Amino acid sequence: MNYLEHETEVKYVDGLLAHSQEWQWLIEKIQERFEVKEVDSWEEYLNESIAMRKMFQYFVKVLEVCDGEWKYRKVIHAEMWEIAKFYIGKISLDACMQKVSYNVCKLFLLCVWITKLEKKDNEFEILYDIRLLSEKNYFQLINCESLREHEQEIMGYTETFQVRGMEVPLKCLEDNINQMEYLSDHDFLERYENVIVSYNAFSYQRIDEQECKTWQEEYLLDMLKVSFIGKKIQPMFTGSNGNVPEISMWSKDILKDMKNYFQDIRADFVLETISYFLFSTEPSKRIKLLHCRVLSEVIKREEEHFKIFNSSSYVFLACMHKDKQMKECGQEAEYINLLQEIQKWEEPDRILKLKEDGYPTSRIQKEKAAQYLENKFKEVENISEIWELQKYIENTIVAGEITMEYFRVLCQKFRSCIKDKTDISVATVYYRYMLFLIEINKNNKSIDKRYLQKEMIQTQESWQNFAYSEQCKNMQEFSYEHTFEKRELAKFSEQALTNPIVFAGLCTPCSEKELLNIMTSASESVLVYLVNRMELNAVFPREKAIIYERHDIDKLLLNYVTVLEEKKGYKLLNKLEPTVFMEAIHERFFENTQCYVAIFSEEEKLYQMIKRECKVKLIPCSNRISLALLTQLFPVLEIKIRELAKLLGVFPFKKSKEEFMQYNDPSSLLREILGRVYEAQQSFENVSDLMFVYQMMYNGNSCNIRNECVHGRNYLAGGSLRFAFRVTLFAIYMIDFRIKTIKQNVSDIQDI
Questions:
Q1: In sequence order, which residues have a C-beta less than 8 Å from that of residue 120 and are 6 or more positions away?
Q2: What is the C-alpha to C-alpha distance for residues 27 and 69, in angstroms, rounded to an integer?
Q3: pTM for this one?
């Protein structure tokens, strides 16, 4: 109870966007799902207000698009509607007071009234705020001028209902209105010292904040509700409505004010640590040493090592060491004690962890680590099963330290483990093994690089010549049949030739609605995207992932997806990372293109149309597609893209002295055009044809037909060759179609 189901939420938001004037259905749903009880005390009200705030939000949003009146079965819900009308200014305060009879609604009206007066003097949007009633000194954060003007009216209204426990919140309100400043309470830090000054203070701590009197105290405890991942702060909860706690409120000025308020090292322990992770502000020497002390104390108590390694003080000091900010502590007892404690550790895994995190290790520890690694290398001799091999090669430390002797053994073990193996784990082992070899090439100085290169070549050839075909045999085929009448296929093909931009929209849909449909579908099949997926390729297997480095258009599309999720996320059953939705979009682009290209039946007609328009002589078309028939089209496409670029004001040559008047590559030209479009329109909806050409022909995260074919990696024969041929024909036709459209409709372009 006290929430609306996903389908209802979607219908509700869609109604808001459409400015619907019919909301009786929502009123019925809210009365069905939300239960609010009458109260006799302030404490009871706080419990009931949780549901009331959500209900109030629905009512306010509806009133912003519709001022209709509805039928109610429950009086409390009707009174909440009246309060919402007061909030947005549909009725006066006096009129609202006359229509509110329940104590729980009177208290809610009081809080909404205070919120409205608070909003009047401050630049923020908020529906409901009771911090003036619960946090002393809150007046320091906001302007309370309007509240001071209406203080007597507010206090007079509170006398119209009898509720126990109102003395405390009303006293807090009165003090804030009159700017009564409360100084730091020494007892507060005494009570919470153990949770504040702790080796794992920042660990999503759930702390009873009822004893907090000031906003400074509440903020301080809120800061313990986070954790550190690397050098970033991770809130306890992140959702569409914000974070818990709200990290964005912890500005440099707020942290400074809090330091001045408490003036206590215990508070500084929290504040300076947060400031470091938020703003990279170097902490004071005494705070560094305090982290050293609490960490060394817990090590002395022989706390479990995994708790130590995941503790906030350990992470903090690891960052300090990596940033080389511990030099000033070198001669201090607290730091020396910490080093003495960690250097007592003899377990190799702990020592290696310390080295990885930047902590100084002793000579003896270094020797133990070296001995451990040597023994770890020797484990390769005992490998007999494929899962043992996979476990071994997943260790990046081994990759960086393995000797030539044991590397030779590993190469033999790899071949023996995969011999005669046909199950799906083989592809994963090939992939992990190649990553292991790449890691060796990058970080290992003792391995003969010529021998390593030879092993990498042999591994790739082994997959391409033998393992790939065996793995394909193990794949389970899922098929779907759909029957088309000849006249339907002919009509579709004719429409595709009439307007190829429409055809592109079917293959690579870029409108907000279509992308959102893809995202919605992905959010309903969440498990598919939460597991690692291996892609079998004739060249080599790899984990499916989108690479964003040097892929500007995918970065822009990712940005669009992020914005779309923020704007229309209510439609999604499950919240996923934007990168996950990007995977789904790329998959849909490929699947759609495969489908629509396959049912296109006028291949020869399209070829002849391009041949007639082409200034380059093309070879005759044949039902038997050859590589030559395809590759001759690539320069034709490049010429067309350069022509389009000129029409759109994009210089088709490289803009550098060293590469003077050398043609820019077509992918760069398309990226620049698409980038300009996105900058101007914040979408790709009107350039689905250009997106089709870029994704299918030049994007390494998609089909990348031109480069894959030219470099002899794919689209060389069979069905893939025919697919590439048709896609390339459409790419040329789309660019030519847009060129002609521009020339026909724009009068002031240069005649090319």
A1: 146
A2: 10
A3: 0.69
